[in-house]
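[Meeting: bench + compute handoff]

Bench side (C.D.) handed over the final construct sequence. Compute side (W.E.) agreed to return the predicted structure before the next meeting so the bench team could plan truncations. Sequence as handed over:
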Amino acid sequence: MRTVHFATNRVLTGPADQVTSYSPSAVSPSDPTAVTYGTAFVEDAGLDADTVGAIKSINNVRQGQFSESAKGDLSDPGRNLLVFVHGFDNTFENAITRAAFNQQWLEQSGVPAASTAVVAFSWPSAGKLIGKPLPSLAYRDDQRRAGLSGLPLMTFFANLQPLIDAARSKGNRVFLLAHSMGNWALQAAVESWFVHGNGDALLFDEAFLAAADEVHNTFGTTPPGRLSGLSRLAKRISIYSSQRDEVLKLSSAVNLARRLGQNGPDDGTNAVLFPPAKYLMVDCSSANDYAFDLASSHQYYRRSPQVRADIAKTMG
C-alpha cells in the first residue's frame, strides 16, 4: 500500500473520502483556504503491465492546510520527498494513482536516494482526451484550468515550505516532478510566488521537468515571468525532452509554438545562459526500450526503463 499526501483545488461535490467527489471544477483561485488537503492510500501498481493501483481510502481531509498527521509525516519522512504535479487528461483518481505509481518505480530503482515519500498536487483537469465539437477543446479547457491553478499551487508550495525545511534539517532532500501540462501550472505558480512578494527559497534540490507542455522560451522571459524564476526556488533543474513526443507535436500545432519538452529551451546548449551546474538537459529521443504509441511517446519518463534509471540516478 502506498501513501500519497495531496492537495487539490478541485471543487468537492460530495463526501471528501469519496474519489468521485473531486470534480473537474476549480475553487476560487483567490481563496487559498478552499484548497483541499488530504491523504490517500493506494494499492501497489503493476509496473510491468503499466497499471496503477486503486485508491482504497482517503482520510485526514482538511481545508487550507495539511492535517497535523500529514505535517508530521512530511516533516520527518525518514527518506527523501517527492512532489508530483500531473499533466493533461487526468482525473483526481488518475493524479493520485499516478503519484503512487511514480513513487513505486523510483523506490524499486535500486537507488537509495530515489526511495521517497510522495505528495501530489491535483489541478482540475477534466480527464477527457477528446472534447466536442472539436478535439482541441478538451486540451484548451485543461490548459486554462492549469493556468488558473497558479495561486493555489503556489499556496501549496508555501504550506510545504516549513515541512520541507524540517525534512531537510534531518538530512532529506526534496524533488519536484512536473509532467506535461503540469509545467503550465508550475510556471503560473512560480510567477505567483514572486508576484506575491515571496523571495528566493530552496524549495527543491532538483526539479524534474518531464515532457513539459510549456513554451520553449519560458526561461527567457523577463524575470520572474513564467519559469524564469524557477532557478531561484530549485538548486538544479533537469529538463527531459523528446523529439519523438507525438502529443507535444499536436500541442505545438494547437498553440502555434514549440514546446519545452520537444527539444529543450531556446539556447539550451549555451553554458552561460544554462550553466551545467544549474541545468541538466536530457534528450530522450533515442529511448526505444518501451512500447511506442501516441500516448506512451509522451509518458517516456516512466515507461522507458532507460529514462527511469536516469531520473533515479540523477536523484542519487
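W.E. noted at the follow-up: The first helix runs from residue 68 to 75. C.D. will use this when planning the next construct.
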